[in-house]
Amino acid sequence: MRTAVIDRRTAETDIHCELNLDGKGDTRISTGIGFFDHMMTLMAFHGRMDLVLKADGDLDVDDHHTIEDCGIVLGQAFKQALGERTGIARYGSFTLPMDESLASVNLDISGRPYLVFNCEFSRDSIGMMATEMVEEFMRAFAFNAGITLHINLHYGNNDHHKAEAVFKALGHALNGAIAQNSDVLMSTKGMLE
Ligand SMILES: [Mn+2]
């Protein structure tokens, strides 16, 4: 089993994360931000990962530090759990509809962090989560996990559906990319970084 446990404490947030990449999608998420909990639950379930994520952040300021730091910790846990990366598919792509919305996630577990994010929201926030924090979460996750991550929202009207399509597609794309299909390291240069 590919697992990692990370605890990270700063003056702004206190985060505990347990990740099992070879899980069944079991989750225990509690960040104090209901819509973000919903997104983390969907991502882990559709990624078939077991995820415990507990965050105690400075929500009296706003949601920024908590969501960004959850992205950092989840990225660190993902990278640590993945380990040597020998045998993984490396690339993952998934296009997912959620009612009227359609999102694509294309990623490469390359060791080279990059984020392309083309997704516009019409509302400032969904519940207690600012819509601008979707991009911030993705950047923090991609850069700490070492993933080249492209996210494109093709169309949609409802911001809840748009975000849900993006996070579900991310789960599926990650699940495909971490699948172990061989004993080969998928790099002609012999290393992923
Ligand atoms: Mn929903």
Task: Throw out a few tags for this protein.
10 strands; Ribosomal Protein S5, domain 2; about 190 residues; four-stranded mixed sheet; binds manganese (II) ion; alpha+beta
Order of H and E elements:
EEEHEHEEEEEHEH
- Proportion of residues in β-strands: 25-35%
Structural class: alpha+beta
For this structure, what is the CATH homologous superfamily?
Imidazole glycerol phosphate dehydratase, domain 1
Terminal-residue CA separation: 23 Å
User: What is the C-alpha radius of gyration, as a whole number of Å?
Assistant: 16 Å
Please state the average pLDDT score: 96
DSSP helical segment count = 4
Largest beta-sheet characterization? 4 strands, mixed
CATH third-tier fold name: Ribosomal Protein S5, domain 2
Q: Just name the CATH architecture.
A: 2-Layer Sandwich
Helix fraction by DSSP (H/I, runs of at least 4): 25-40%
Global geometry:
globular
* CATH hierarchy class name: Alpha Beta
Low-confidence stretches: none
